[in-house]
């Protein structure tokens, strides 16, 4: 049993275009009232959450009650990577981002106070174990990294890049509809993106998809701010779900896109769903890859799911 241990909060103040800071103010008030033993750290730049998580883990290790992320999917991604040598440290999440797919996939309450209450009420109880996706690019054999929600290749990578750089994401966040930013990027890129052949090897079986738009590899059903891309994905089944969209014109892609929010895109013959534990993906030309919405490199890439982590949900 873990007793009297410290909570560490890692807060991304710019997540959700400032929502991270506001969410923190709400939680802080509760922490003071409840006399919670905690320390808080604000991220100062991209990648900082990963450094903080690693330093804290090295310093306090098992003595931590939990590390709690206040931010969006990108901040969660960084913390998970910072803790890759410390998978026994429990991680909690309070939504403060734009897309918040992690919150959807792990059924974290949208209400800040409820999300914190659920974490705090689990004190001294063990967190649950979940799968992580482990990936590496072939030209950087040793540099392994992890994702918790999903990884996207091709059109998907371009959409993530466009969204992260856009001014409309900030604007929509202010209107509290940050999830719409991904949808706008899809429409913007639809007419300029050129599909290409993608080769997927999954658990030893090779597939070639001609004129493929994207490959989405999921640990949870959701990505891109609520699109139900892999309706059957479960983060605790030891497998990854794949969705490949191939050989269709731009108008039909638009139809697929409209149905993906309900998970109905699987009815289209141009949508192939697969699942497995070990994957290698290469393509006719190098394609942009995102992990948990953060741009991480270009194909070819190797992915598997043999690593687990502790999440408080
Ligand atoms: N102080 C900072 N200044 C600028 N960028 C930061 C800072 N701290 C963290 N970041 C970066 O902010 C980016 C966005 O964070 P995050 O993904 O958590 O929020 P979001 O994009 O609003 O939400 P979501 O990913 O759920 O859509 C991340 O790439 C992170 O590295």
From TrEMBL:
Cofactor: Mg(2+)
Keywords, comma-separated and alphabetical: ATP-binding, Kinase, Lipid biosynthesis, Lipid metabolism, Nucleotide-binding, Phospholipid biosynthesis, Phospholipid metabolism, Transferase
Keyword check for Nucleotide-binding: yes
InterPro entries noted in UniProt: ATP-NAD_kinase_N, Diacylglycerol/lipid_kinase, Diacylglycerol_kinase_cat_dom, Lipid_Phosphate_FormReg, NAD/diacylglycerol_kinase_sf, YegS/DAGK_C
Residues covered by the DAGKc domain: 2-138
GO molecular function: kinase activity
Similarity annotation: Belongs to the diacylglycerol/lipid kinase family.
Protein's name in the database: YegS/Rv2252/BmrU family lipid kinase
Species for this entry: Caldalkalibacillus horti
Classification lineage: Bacteria, Bacillati, Bacillota, Bacilli, Bacillales
């Amino acid at each position: 049993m873990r007793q009297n241990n410290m909570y560490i909060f890692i807060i991304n103040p710019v997540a959700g275009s400032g929502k991270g800071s506001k969410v923190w103010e709400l939680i802080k008030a509760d922490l003071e009232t409840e006399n919670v033993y905690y320390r808080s750290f604000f991220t100062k730049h991209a990648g900082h959450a990963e450094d903080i998580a690693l330093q804290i883990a090295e310093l306090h290790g098992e003595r931590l009650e939990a590390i709690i992320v206040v931010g969006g999917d990108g901040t969660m991604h960084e913390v998970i990577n910072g803790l890759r040598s410390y998978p026994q440290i429990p991680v909690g999440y309070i939504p403060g981002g734009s897309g918040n797919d992690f919150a959807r996939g792990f059924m974290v309450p949208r209400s800040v106070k409820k999300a914190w209450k659920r974490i705090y009420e689990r004190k001294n109880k063990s967190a649950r174990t979940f799968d992580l996706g482990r990936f590496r690019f072939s030209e950087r054999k040793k540099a392994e990294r992890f994702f918790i929600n999903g990884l996207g290749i091709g059109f998907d990578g371009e959409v993530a890049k466009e969204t992260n750089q856009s001014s409309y994401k900030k604007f929509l966040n202010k209107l509290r509809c940050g999830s719409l930013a991904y949808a706008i990027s899809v429409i913007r890129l639809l007419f300029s993106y050129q599909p290409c052949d993608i080769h997927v090897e999954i658990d030893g079986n090779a597939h070639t998809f001609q004129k493929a738009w994207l490959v989405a590899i999921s640990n949870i059903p959701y990505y891109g701010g609520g699109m139900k891309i892999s309706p059957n994905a479960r983060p605790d089944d030891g497998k990854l779900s794949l969705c490949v969209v191939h050989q269709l014109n731009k108008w039909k892609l638009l139809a697929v896109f409209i149905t993906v929010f309900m998970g109905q895109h699987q009815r289209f013959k141009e949508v192939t769903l697969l699942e497995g534990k070990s994957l290698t993906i290469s393509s006719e030309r190098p394609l942009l890859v995102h992990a948990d919405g953060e741009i991480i490199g270009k194909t070819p890439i190797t992915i598997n799911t043999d690593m687990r982590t502790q999440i408080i949900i």
